[in-house]
Amino acid sequence: MSIETRILPELREVHSQFPGFELEKNLEWSRSLVSAASVRKSEHVNTTSRKIPRDGGEMLVKIYEPAGRTNDLLPAMLWIHGGGYVLGHPDMDDKLCELFVQTAECIVVSVDYRLAPEHPYPAAIEDCYAGLVWMTEESAMLGIDVNRVAIAGASGGGGLTAALALMARDKGGPSIIFQMPLYPMLDNRNITPSSHEITEEGSIWNRTDNVAAWNMYLGEENDVSGSFSYAVPSRAESLAGLPPAYTCVGQLDLFRDETMEYVARLAQAGVDVEFHLYPGCFHLFESLAPETEVSQRAVQGYMDAMARALHPNRVL
């Protein structure tokens, strides 16, 4: 049975119109598919950009905060954009980050980490960690409550979110109270059943895309032991001591099985985790078809989860 026949009717047109990535044949063209569209900025959110230090240079971060905010300290979230470690830019998630600000009443810092293959592992995770350290060290300037800091990202950004939680745990900080690795890219082995299901050309992130992206990200490296496990979170020896988590994935997503296995391991390690599986939904469904009922339900689900995590004493 083809994947197309299993997709929810409300999502089929979007899926059929997507041209598909060609990472190996034309990386720059593939990058253009996820370039930011022009969106109307929310009058309720102020956005600023600045350069912050990272190892060997500087990087861009975008800061989103409520317009007209008071001097009260606010919780904060580090957002990590998706793109399979090889695509993407913070600009493409402006609308999403604004929605997090408004729903979870928080400050969002979105980091422009370096992309593979120009900058293979560990450049991206080191940049994400630098962003987390910066936002906590500059908490007074940013008006952040360091006791309420979360991390989140989708797809490749979800994989980096999981890796960042592991790295912060192992380094002893900064403190994270919540992680949200949405349909995360966690495992380079491509041995799960779902990694063999999504193979059709034009599918949104198929097996060919995944193999190519992992090869670009890992470069010459193939040893995932020790600290290198931050590249492949699913291969971390222990998930104990990580912050509570929320994740979701479409049933027709290549990352379905690795996400479900990671959720099970988190639960077995004593980490509180909430998980949602969306039947008939493919990779990035809620981003590509935002007006559909299932997409709105999925987005509201993870927005509400972040609000609950960042305001634990509030009845929502």
Average pLDDT, all residues: 94
Number of helical runs? Answer: 12
- Widest beta sheet: strand line-up: 1-2-4-3-5-6
Total strands: the figure is 8
Task: Record the SSE blueprint.
Elements (H helix, E strand, L loop, with lengths): L2 H4 L2 H9 L9 H6 L12 E10 L2 E10 L7 E7 L13 H11 L2 E5 L11 H15 L1 H4 L1 E11 L1 H16 L6 E5 L10 H5 L9 H12 L26 E8 L3 H13 L4 E10 L2 H4 L4 H18 L6
Parallel strand pairs: 3-4, 3-5, 5-6, 7-8
Antiparallel strand pairs: 1-2, 2-4
Report on the structure:
The strands form two sheets. The protein has a six-stranded mixed sheet with strand order 1-2-4-3-5-6, sandwiched between helices. The chain is globular and about 55 Å long. It has 316 residues and is of the alpha/beta class. Helix 4 (94-104) crosses helix 12 (293-310) and helix 5 packs across helix 7. The longest helix has 18 residues, at 293-310. Helices cover 37% and strands 21% of the residues. It is built from twelve helices and eight strands. The chain has helices spanning 3-6, 9-17, 27-32, 94-104, 123-137, 139-142, 156-171, 193-197, 207-218, 256-268, 285-288, 293-310; strands at 45-54, 57-66, 74-80, 107-111, 144-154, 178-182, 245-252, 273-282. The model has no long low-confidence stretch (mean pLDDT 94). Helix 4 (94-104) links the parallel strand 3 (74-80) and strand 4 (107-111).
Concise structural overview:
Helix content is 37%, strand content 21%. It is built from twelve helices and eight strands.
Features:
single chain; 316 residues; alpha/beta; six-stranded mixed sheet; two-stranded parallel ribbon; 12 helices; 37% helix
